[in-house]
């Protein structure tokens, strides 16, 4: 006899590739991404800012973390400058991470907005499949399994990826007054 039995619904979905997931396993890297979302910085500037945020790390360790993020594709070299006979690299994040706790009553307060979003997204997903279903299915067939998952949800991943990219484009468009 089970002590507890519960139907646990999916409440969160994290979509990323395995390389990014490995890169994000570290709190220091998350802080670096946060810093580099706001401005481009050198390794030295990242090192100093981490120190101000209570992370005392050797500069070589900071360089390692930045390289892991760069290899995962979430940080890029934004510009190069000549400096004292060498080249100074400035890094910038191309990824934004949202990691917040909703207020206690947010779910109840936002029920109507959630219902509207679900209805609109249902229509949008149907429209996507009507116009691009063959393309979505073709890409899904070429995808490789996630090393963490036994069950694959390729088409769901692709739809979420398309929606994420569309939201990024909406956010990045200059706001009109």
From TrEMBL:
<dbReference type="InterPro" id="IPR036388">
    <property type="entry name" value="WH-like_DNA-bd_sf"/>
</dbReference>
<feature type="domain" description="HTH arsR-type">
    <location>
        <begin position="19"/>
        <end position="111"/>
    </location>
</feature>
<dbReference type="InterPro" id="IPR011991">
    <property type="entry name" value="ArsR-like_HTH"/>
</dbReference>
<dbReference type="Pfam" id="PF12840">
    <property type="entry name" value="HTH_20"/>
</dbReference>
<dbReference type="InterPro" id="IPR036390">
    <property type="entry name" value="WH_DNA-bd_sf"/>
</dbReference>
<protein>
    <submittedName>
        <fullName>ArsR/SmtB family transcription factor</fullName>
    </submittedName>
</protein>
<dbReference type="InterPro" id="IPR001845">
    <property type="entry name" value="HTH_ArsR_DNA-bd_dom"/>
</dbReference>
